User: Fold these one by one.
Assistant:
Number 1:
Amino acid sequence: MSDRYGDFVQSSIGKKVAKNLGLPQPVSLDRFESGQRLVRGSVLVGRAEGDDMSVSNSVARILSDLHAEVYVNSRDDAKDALIEAGIEAKANTGSKDKFKVLLFDASNISNADQLKQVYEFFHQVARSVEKSGRVIIIGRPPEDIDDVQTALAQRSLEGFVKSVGKEFKRGITAQLIYVAKGSEKNLDSALRFFTSARSAYVSGQVVRVGAGNTIDIDWSQPLAGKTMLVTGASRGIGEAIARVLAREGAHVICLDVPQQQADLQNVASEISGSTLTVDITSADAGEQIADAAQKRGGLDAIIHNAGVTRDKTLANMDEKKWDMVIDINLNSVAELNKYLLEKQVLKDDARIVCVSSISGIAGNLGQTNYATSKAGVIGLVDATARQLANEGKGMTINAVAPGFIETQMTEAIPFAIREAGRRMNSMSQGGLPVDVAETIAWLASPASGGLNGNTVRVCGQSMLGA
Ligand code: NAD
């Protein structure tokens, strides 16, 4: 879908007009391209002082695997961890160096005064981040910490990261990763995702990495040999998910309603996947999915993407609109999970990823039915994550919550509201279906065993519900 204003401000005259009038200035975001390096520039690494080196050691190992060009500030003891990982970091000489990624290990911060180290590290390089750059802070989950001073300091990082996301502009994203003590070995997939162009439209997010099976994978084809099912795969976001999962090596079973058969077949043929036409609210949907999955030895992931809107203000909403949205978006997801888990159609280490919406986080006028269903999806993810962790089979469940994504769904929104939705985020533009798809592929990866119960917004850090 065309974004005429976005195109206009890319031109030299457009840039001048937007700057002079103080209008939003969306930049064209870096996105994943096959063959390109994961980190397209240099990485400045820093750490807060302290004895615990476990996060810095993991970061150094990952950067070494990525063959990243790494810089440190002089006398920073981040250097020691890097040397141990075989990286000879260059010294940051000051204003001339530009960085694609600023990465700070804040795991040792244990009181409010020590937060000054975060200020000092980022303050001096705040103007040195390249377009579509990445700011990443790694801390410890405050809920795991008994000491009040330490817990408040770690929680403070959230405000810092979210503010940086809003300030830096030019497609620069900012994230906070809370890694539980002892789970540093599980940092790889989150760090690779957030440093790369795959996370183009994800910003201001707080992600928790915890215990989970670490599975060695071929990072160039992380989903090779996996069978994954995507609901609502004939168009829009579902189609993009199917394409990205297939690009990463998965065999994709593309599911949609019988009316979408032709489009579904086109998508499946192009990605060498298979099709399943079934309404997910029908009584035998679980059985049909199980049959299709068993032919391929079971499912490594299910992506619950199918969803509908039937907007009306509450006073004008008839019962049918309420029931339909709750049934498709929420009930069917819960029913299918229950069936597929009970019948062991989902294999050990399987991934479940649900598509929620920022509407389910912030609420939205005319969407009591939709927002209820999408908030319910987050509740379902929270509760199921606990259940899966207790079962100990390595399975995980996470949600993505898209904001304004350029699809048929958002094309139908009246112009003024559409334009507001598109601009009211830190990227000043709508996201693309592929942005949601990349995030889902990350959560669906066998390497993401440490991610369970997260809801990741793909909304360019939308002001709604922020
Ligand atoms: P879309 O309408 O283009 O596609 C939805 C697909 O789901 C369609 O192919 C449809 O046939 C299928 N579907 C609907 N009911 C079904 C059923 N009962 N059984 C099987 N398939 C069914 O929508 P989209 O914009 O691609 O949205 C995909 C998901 O992302 C939805 O869950 C939506 O709520 C969510 N989402 C979208 C946006 C956005 O900006 N587009 C924002 C937030 C969340």
Number 2:
Amino acid sequence: MMKKYKIAVIPGDGTGPEVVNEGIKVLNVVAANCGFGLNFSHYNLGGEHYNATGELLPDHQLESLARSDAIYLGAIGHPEVRPGILEKGILLKLRFRFDQYINLRPVKLYEGVDTPLKDKGPEHIDFVIVRENTEGLYTGAGGCFKRDTPDEVAIQESINTRKGVERCIRYAFDYCRKRNKAKKLTLCGKTNVLTYAFDLWQRTFNEVANDYPDIITDYAHVDAICMWMVKNPEWFDVIVTDNMFGDIISDLAAMIQGGMGIAAGANINPGGISMFEPIGGSAPKYTGQQKINPLAGILAAGVMLEILGESKAASYIDAGVAKVLREDLIDLAAGKMGYSTAEVGDLVVEYIQENH
Ligand code: IPM
Ligand code: MN
């Protein structure tokens, strides 16, 4: 019997829906070509929905999402909703509820894409960031005291558990082995200042490393990683780090690979339901204008298939995107695609069909 995957789609706000449309278009084509089925159900969640109904992510929606094989997300973010509400109420809630403890960010400079780094090309920029995705500063631990008085105190604590740190580090070692490139894993931390949290990270890293004698291990402080990512991005193969540092270095990395239009991300629970998204925001001012590059969303769909075990289909998507970047979107650096959002999706489809 043909394998069929249930994909929950959260198009979200702003330009999220038009990007997600292109991802679905491409997914349907590779699924047909590779002989598996995809069943999409749409969920109306995000700032628009919140403003209209006051609802963020109700339990019945969560229960329904829990019956899917994967979640495909466009963007969550609305200019009229106070910062933190949608992030905590939807995005982070999904990450925590489904225990998506890995945030995976492939960083690859495709041929034909400009990087702001002088004298660097595709041969220098090809690494992956494995970010812990359910702990650290993101748990919401802490509080405030005497708010709005001169004596105000605000505490925001970083929670690091042995279990959480170890499963993330193990995932990174496994990933590095499977990726089979330089086979080098760099721990990114701040052991010189955060002497409790990153002591736990460092010890766990060293211990787990014993199980992976084939992987070269390395350590760098997060501030130094920021310098080296700009100066010597070719030093990196896989980087593993905590939630907050991972958030920050992922955006730096997105810029050196050509910007938000190309950066895809995945929130992974290796034994559960994972969620895939372009990492750019909802870009509200471009809503409905077909100006946003959908390739990040299409690449995220590719990562989804890879994680679902459909590697061949994933590689078709990657090759299709690579060809569009190499041959068609040559003015990206000037902020010009030369095509509409839908036309870029059509080009990817065309190249996938040619390849098939
Ligand atoms: C990301 C985003 C989120 C994060 C925000 C929107 C809460 O920046 O996925 O990297 O900080 O994790
Ligand atoms: Mn981020």
